[in-house]
Design brief:
Length: 113
């Protein structure tokens, strides 16, 4: 999906070329079929090849995936998810990032969330 979001549309071969540690071509085709069956992508015919296109915008897909992650692994708790991210060893946040988080928390407070 990352390759499709970057390119906008791509053939299976182009997706394969865009992957850092690519599986086989047939694996990419199988995954595209699954993604199409689930409604995440669609294809259009371009001569003898299929061009695959995301059905859902990247921002919406991120929100949906994040909601699923929070529900599945953090019992629906945003606090638990954020705490896990902040407590992770690789969470070396800059002052600007911490300030941004503070702004978002204050905005949530004002909006009553």
């Amino acid at each position: 999906m990352d390759v499709l979001y970057r390119r906008g549309r791509a053939t299976a071969a182009e997706i394969l070329d865009g992957l850092p540690d690519p599986p086989s071509y047939s694996s990419v085709r199988a995954m595209l079929r699954i993604l199409e069956d689930k409604g995440h992508v669609w294809h259009e015919q371009d001569g003898p090849r299929y061009l695959y296109v995301p059905r859902v915008g990247r921002e919406r897909a991120k929100r949906t995936a994040l909601q699923h992650l929070v529900h599945t692994f953090f019992e629906g708790s945003t606090v638990q998810a954020v705490a896990a991210l902040l407590e992770a060893p690789a969470s070396d946040m800059t002052e600007a990032e911490l300030a941004r988080l503070t702004e978002l928390i204050e905005k949530a407070r004002k909006e009553g969330r």
